[in-house]
Amino acid sequence: MALELRQQLKLSQKLVMTPQLRLAIKLLQMNRLELTDALQAEIEQNPALEEDLSTQETQDNPYSLSSTTEHQGDKPEQDYTERVSAGDTMPETNWEDYANNFDSNFSFSHETPPADAPSQFDFISEKPGLLAYLQWQLAHCELDAAEKETALFIAGNLNRYGFLEISLEEIMAATDCDHDSAEYLLEVIQEMDPPGIGARDVSESLFLQLERMGMQDSLAAKIVKNHLNLLQTRNYKEISRATGAKRAEVIKAIDFIVAELTPYPGLPYSKEDTNYITPDIYVRKIDGEFVIHLNEEDIPNLKLSSQLQSLLDVEAGMEKESKRYIKEKLKDAGWFIKSLHQRQRTIFKVMESILKFQREFFEHGATKLKPLILRDVAEDIEMHESTISRVTSNKYVHTPLGIYELKYFFSTAIPREGRDDLAAESIRERIRKMILEEDPYKPLSDNAISEKLAENNIQIARRTVAKYREQMKILPVKHRRKPR
């Protein structure tokens, strides 16, 4: 068989990911925070992209990003924005309002600052945590250098709950101290605030708190020290039998433990910040009709730089390379603005389609949620399923019923004989409602909930009820039962 070289023509089709397509996909799947960062970074890197600082309202601006229809024209960005004047700068800041005015010449004759004036504590970059609080207390303890170093080592090995994660042997090996010193310094930490700090587990933490109250010999102390597993299941009968106390006394002691003690003393000093959700879309009911409005509070209005565009009209005195650079930056800026418009229009269309399919949910609540898959919305707005998946990821909508992720409206179907299918989320909502309305002294078991659902022609097994209940973080029946 001879080897030879040949030339052959072949016609084929393939999908090419252009830079513009990559940009559009990247912007489409960004959440609110990522989009804000991307906008700011693009404005800083591309001199052809500018923020529109005109005083005209966004809703009156036909070229605003809030519009779901993109303007068609040659150079629309060049005509609707006024140039930024020198008067648009920020007013001069009076730094006296932000100073620490704690001098001895304080007088009530001075003008009182407004109630909403920022305090010097508003500018602290980091909130002090549990370790900083313990270090401050250790600074006031009468310890020598070696003891203070060991105490700091112990404080540094407390987890976010305030529990000690290492043993005394590990403390001795790391700090080169004897057993008595390690045990003494651990007791020093346990005597600090908050009560219960430095314990090895929940039982010891609760006992330390009771000991701080002078209740180390009480019935509550016996329960948390020896019968914590029975306390978790609220098994009053077994606790009464083990401690020899009457049932009423046991109930009173347990109520005191639950109301007055903290199982995790370190949590109030945790530096974890709460992340608040900013919705991408608002759905409001106005005059009986649902109106969709995109949230563009932190999305600036963008435009092409009029100065760079005017430079292209000057033929003389400009190098060819400079002119090519300006054209490239203007083209990139134009594609960026166009991709933003496309992102907003796509989100609007997807929400419009979801509203059409799930209108009964917006009218009556989660029990009326219908089964819905990505393909249904994709076929409705004539887009690909992957596009719908990108749009609904990490996007939230504010509705009259609350804030929901767009993925929430997509749910598998639970078939019913002779009736319409139900969404799995609708079943979970029915289970949640049953548990809220149950008798606290005789709560519903998973099997009883399954039988009640079967009466409404909803056939699901007991283990499925248990799975849905665990997903909603609802305790089983033995933990929900209250004593009579």
Overview in brief:
The protein is of the alpha+beta class. The protein has 20 helices and 8 strands.
Structure, described:
This protein is of the alpha+beta class and 484 residues long. Among the domains are: 130-269, Arc Repressor Mutant, subunit A, CATH 1.10.10; 281-409, no CATH class; 413-480, Orthogonal Bundle (Arc Repressor Mutant, subunit A). It is 44% helix and 7% strand. It has helices spanning 19-28, 32-45, 130-138, 145-156, 168-175, 179-190, 202-212, 219-226, 228-232, 236-243, 247-260, 306-312, 320-357, 359-364, 374-381, 385-392, 424-436, 446-455, 462-471, 477-480; strands at residues 49-51, 281-286, 289-294, 302-304, 396-399, 402-405, 413-416, 419-423. The longest helix is centred in the last third of the chain and has 38 residues, at 320-357. The radius of gyration is 33 Å and the shape is extended. The model is unreliable at 55-111 (pLDDT under 50).
